[in-house]
Amino acid sequence: MTSILSRRRLLLTGAGIGAVTGLGVSRAAAQAPQAPCRVAVSAGINTGTYRFHIGDIRATIISDGTIAGNIRIYARDAEQAELDAVLGAAHLSQSQFPLQLNAMLLEQGSRRILIDPGANLAMGPNGGRLISRLADLGLAPGDIEAIVITHTHPDHVGNLRNQDGTAAFPKAGVYVPEPDWQFFYINEPDLSHLPMPRDFQERFIRNIKISLEAVAGNVIRYQPGREVLPGIMTVPAHGHTPGMSALLIASGGDQLMVTADLAYHPLLNIDQGWMPGVDIDGEAARQTRNRLFDRAAADNLLLFGFHFPFPGLGRLYRTGSGYRWLPQAWDFTG
């Protein structure tokens, strides 16, 4: 027993690891002071990509970064005492509640499709990582053939535009819901009812317009409820915006529902069931959320949340009074 413990202790020390040369251990190393083993961590080790499959489709979740905002943007009807208790137990901030920006890449044979490419810097300094993470996957913007937009808020369309105003994905057809195109791009939207300062509302609208302007020549407008590309069906999800669509992606016997902004965070809008504060039509959004969540729970659909903790995959199950979120177990096989 003593010899086993001694060998184990040697292997766990910096001296034991650092001094092994060839088949032996030097006398200097054996006499060196023992120190705890330290593993160097690369600055880029958290790459922000996660790969899985939907039937024959290879899917990759790509983090464009994060955004953060006041909690009332994401849970407008929460009672303050209950909100304090829930956030306190989860060690989360009310003033700068964090959300992810989870884009999705689909690869169907040689076709590459992006779903909601993310914010770039339209919503703060912590976005804008999509292009570099595509490069890490060996892809350039010109490799993207199509982009499907669930709705045209700036955190979902900001990456359509380069900083110089040109299209970031020059060869991609961009599928945009017709009602959102009309409401946000063609017309001047009234967002005065939203819980945001007026200057923020103005920047919000401007970022939508300049992002869509950059790709206007490549936009294909769709009516929610239609298949936009083989295996990608849009599902009407009116309420958050006039034309927001969930997506149902199917291949073989597998299905994935892209929930867009039906919910911002599982803790707030699923487990607690609080209402987001930036829905244009709150009652319509509530009905849409219940309808699609009921379907997801009944059919045991795998869901993907754009703002959910990375990589944003999981399932819903019904409770007596609502729903619960169960994150998908991490798959190391890709």
Automatic annotation (TrEMBL):
Matching Gene3D superfamilies: Ribonuclease Z/Hydroxyacylglutathione hydrolase-like
Entry keyword set: Hydrolase, Metal-binding, Zinc
Metallo-beta-lactamase domain residues: 100-306
Family as reported in the entry's similarity comment: Belongs to the metallo-beta-lactamase superfamily.
Name of protein: MBL fold metallo-hydrolase
Native source organism of the sequence: Microvirga arabica
